[in-house]
Amino acid sequence: MASTSRNEEQGSSSSAGPSPIEAVKTVTWGTNLKEDVFARWGQGFIFSEDEPAALLQNEGGPCAIIAPLQGYILKNLLFQEPQVEHWQQIDAERRRELLLEAMTEVLSNVSTSNEFTLILQADKQQSVMTENPVIENIAQGGQEPPTDHNTFHSSLRLQSYNSVEEVHSALQASYHMFTNDGGVLLFLYSVLLTKGLDSIKVEVEDSSEPLIDGIYGHGSQSLINLMLTGRAVSHVFDDEKEVAGLRMKGVTEQGNIGFLTLLENLRYCEVGSYMKNPRCPIWVLGSETHLTVFFTQELSLVAPESKWETARRIFSSYDTEGSGFIQAVLLGDVLATLELFSLPEYVDIMRKKLDPDEFGIILLNAFMAEFFADEPDRLIPEHFTVYHYNGLKRSCPQNKVSFITGRASVPNPGELECLSEATPLKSCLRTKWPTFEVEWTNSVNPSII
User: Fold this and answer.
1) What is the pTM assigned to this prediction?
2) What pLDDT does residue 377 have?
3) Res 130 pLDDT > 70
4) Which residues are registered as beta bridge partners of 326?
5) Using H for helix, E for strand and C for coil, what is the string for the chain?
């Protein structure tokens, strides 16, 4: 395996500027890294003793790395050939492979030049070039974090690779480093240096802001986007927007893993079509303080949207109460959004046709029958199985991290009498499916915090 190694001590620098270790530390934490915040990120990648393929999160903060990696683990577990029938019963070797594949995929997504950098710990680095047995790290009450951040950073070294195959082999050989104390940070720094710190500074909206909040330890949206899409942009809308003369960067293409957030339900942000419609039916879910994962094996949820489904979605976006109708005055806006004929004279004619009794409303069924009568009916089955993952034990039933199973449906708005009470999880999912309903096994309400 061709690779190069560079020794970089914390605190060592040259006249050209700070060392790569110092630089990545500043981009990540800013200039004032608190020990308690650092300690919350000090764990390795560990699996739950109650769910073989579920990663465990000890404290708040590292979900910005753990939840996206969990999404990639599920993608490869559920949708990689040959598919496994009993996917919740995998053995230690298989989940080791899944974690390594997920880490390699993230590094591949962020690399723009087919060059890769791993950050490793010097006192363990001699084992990187050799094959190692499977070293399992299953949670048994958690891990002790590194003693302090200065000691941790002084032990770090850089290893460079020139292909995906080389970096995957190196990850295999150094697997134990990433599953022991500090492993999450080793991977985070590897992602950032593989991406390139200058590239990150160009992509983020404010390069003076660190990627991890110095007070609460939460990963920024830029860090989440980097893990999911390979680009550290600060927004989740599609492409770019210009607001008050400022050009803001969003997501530019469809990814394998999606993203939905409760903050959109609260009108604090807009999630674009790229993030809402990934290639695989797996979504990282964001609350105000935490990230979890929602997934299913029902591929129709990510099938290309038909014209009928597009029309229903856009109509529903103007139906803010989910009542199955819109105010008649909004008809022109709906037609224009759908790129249909929308001259005022025509809109007036159609408004009178669709609202002959002048109640001031237009029903979804009447609208669809008029403009999309020949389009096929919905493709999503009436009911389908869904799962939810939360890596924090304290947020899970009986403090056991496992995939919670539910029976879900997305009724047509015109067929829905009323929506059930909106839990935070339902409110998040309804930003994509406005009529989403689910019954969770044993009447459990999964937490997204």
Assistant:
1) 0.83
2) 58
3) no
4) 362
5) CCEEEEECCCCCEECCEECHHHHHHHHHHCCCCCHHHHHHCCCCCEECCCCCCCEEECCCCCHHHHHHHHHHHHHHHHHCCCCCCCHHHCCHHHHHHHHHHHHHHHHHHHCCCCCEEEEEEHHHHHHCCCCCCCCCCECCCCCCCCCCHHHHHHCEEEEEECCHHHHHHHHHHCHHHHHCCCHHHHHHHHHHHHHCHHHHHHHCCCCCCCCECCCCCCECHHHHHHHHHCCCCCCCCECEEEECCEEEECECCCCCCEEEEHHHHCCCCCCCHHHHCCCCCEEEEECCCCEEEEEECCHHHHCCCCHHHHHHHHHHHHCCCCCCEEEHHHHHHHHHHCCCCCCHHHHHHHHHHHCCCCCCEEEHHHHHHHHCCCCCCCCCCCCEEEEEECCEHHHCHHHCCCCEEEEEECCCHHHCCCCCCCCHHHHHHCCCCCCCEEEEHHHCCCCCC
What is the arithmetic mean of pLDDT over 197-225?
A: 96
In this structure, how many other beta carbons lie within 10 angstroms of the beta carbon of residue 124?
14
Range 276-293 average pLDDT: 97
What pLDDT is attached to residue 306?
A: 78
Torsion of CA 172, 173, 176, 178, to 10 degrees: -60
Integer-rounded Cα Rg, in Å, for the chain is 24
pLDDT in tens, 161-194: 999 999 999 999 999 999 999 999 999 999 999 9
Hey, which residues does 157 pair with through a beta bridge? 7, 120
- 């753990």: which residue's tokens? 66
To 10 degrees, what angle do helices 183-195 and 20-29 make?
100
What the block records as the tokens of 188 is 């985070």
Dihedrals φ, ψ of 295, to 5°? Answer: -155, 165
Q: What is the pLDDT of residue 131?
A: 42
What amino acid positions are annotated as catalytic residues? 63, 290
Q: How far from chain centre, in Å, is Cα 270?
A: 15
Look-up of token digits 């990230």 = 291
pLDDT in tens, 434-444: 899 999 999 99
The larger pLDDT score, comparing residue 10 to residue 42, is at 42
Q: Which residues contact 216 (CB under 8 A, 6 or more apart)?
A: 37, 60, 61, 289
